[in-house]
Fold:
Amino acid sequence: MNRHFTDPLALTCIALWLLICLAAVFADVITRCDYRAQDLTLRLQPPSRGHPFGCDHLGRDILSRVIHGARTSLSISVLVVLIAMSVGTCIGLLSGTAGMVVDTLIMRTCDIFLAFPGILLAIAMAAIMPQTRYSIIIALSTISWVGFARLTRGQVLSVKEQEYILAARSLGAGYWRVTVRHILPNCLSPLIVQATMSLASVILAESSLAFLGLGVGPPYPSWGGMLSSALDYMLDAPHMVLFPGLAIVATVLTINLLGDRLRDFFDPRFKPIPRAGGLLK
Structure:
């Protein structure tokens, strides 16, 4: 295995990321309390053996809501990144291969999107659409595809001038064969790293929208929504803020550290140089 994934920090991040994903997938199995169940006799109860993360202002178990909130945040974020990566990659390929007129038109459109602060554009779109999971996905996908498009275009402009591309064209390969079989595979490495980094950004953006009341509606929990509902109880029940906040920090930090390792893995400058008798360390 590559040395970038064998150091203790990388292994810890991988284990934590797998734990978060498994918790999100099997949230209904590993939680013993219903995240929607209210018991006002447990209102603002601090962490205890029965409720390790305590209870909120409605007597709901915070541990169950944090775990189900992971399902909400991760499902939305993964779908947003997949949509943005697919759309941005296709647009970037078109921009880099279709000629100067199309390239200029696409890049000026990207500049228009970049002229607006991304989170403000997402807030505006989420505010005018129904408060559903799909509205959040559409709003965040709209602001996320531009980075993939610009990155893909830059890679295409570099790759399409390589000798093997010119050789394929000289042998009679058509536009689609050259683009799909030769150019696109050689652009995937930086796109994978970009997708990993974008996943952390989308989680923060989704939490921000939920904090402002523009996330998924009740009864579905989200980390940002939990922080928003805890604002009035920060002094009386700090655990209501602590655990959702730690979930966001741990998830985003884990993804960013994994993204750094992926960048090092795909960058040949960080790979060991082979020599007789072994590898240079």
Q: What stands out?
A: DSSP finds eleven helices and two strands in the chain.
